[in-house]
Amino acid sequence: MARRNAFYAQSGGVTAVINASAAGVIETARRHRTRIGKVYAGRNGIIGARTEDLIDTGKESPAAIRALKHTPAGAFGSCRYKLKGLEESRAQYERLIEVFRAHDIGYFFYNGGNDSADTCLKVSQIAEKLGYPLQAIHVPKTVDNDLAVTDNCPGFGSVAKYVATSMREAAFDVASMAKTSTKLFVLEVMGRHAGWITAAVGMADDADTPIPLVLLFPEIAFDEAAFLAQVDAKIRAHGYCCVGVSEGLSNAGGGLLAEAGTKDAFGHAQLGGVGPLIAKLCKDRLGAKYHWAVADYLQRAARHLASKTDVEQSYAVGRAAVEMALAGGNAVMPAIARVADRPYRWKIVEAPLASVANVEKKLPRDFISRDGYGITQKARAYLAPLMKGEAPPPYKDGLPRYVRLKNVAVPRKLASDFKV
Amino acid sequence: MARRNAFYAQSGGVTAVINASAAGVIETARRHRTRIGKVYAGRNGIIGARTEDLIDTGKESPAAIRALKHTPAGAFGSCRYKLKGLEESRAQYERLIEVFRAHDIGYFFYNGGNDSADTCLKVSQIAEKLGYPLQAIHVPKTVDNDLAVTDNCPGFGSVAKYVATSMREAAFDVASMAKTSTKLFVLEVMGRHAGWITAAVGMADDADTPIPLVLLFPEIAFDEAAFLAQVDAKIRAHGYCCVGVSEGLSNAGGGLLAEAGTKDAFGHAQLGGVGPLIAKLCKDRLGAKYHWAVADYLQRAARHLASKTDVEQSYAVGRAAVEMALAGGNAVMPAIARVADRPYRWKIVEAPLASVANVEKKLPRDFISRDGYGITQKARAYLAPLMKGEAPPPYKDGLPRYVRLKNVAVPRKLASDFKV
Question: What does the pLDDT read at residue B415?
Answer without folding.
Answer: 76
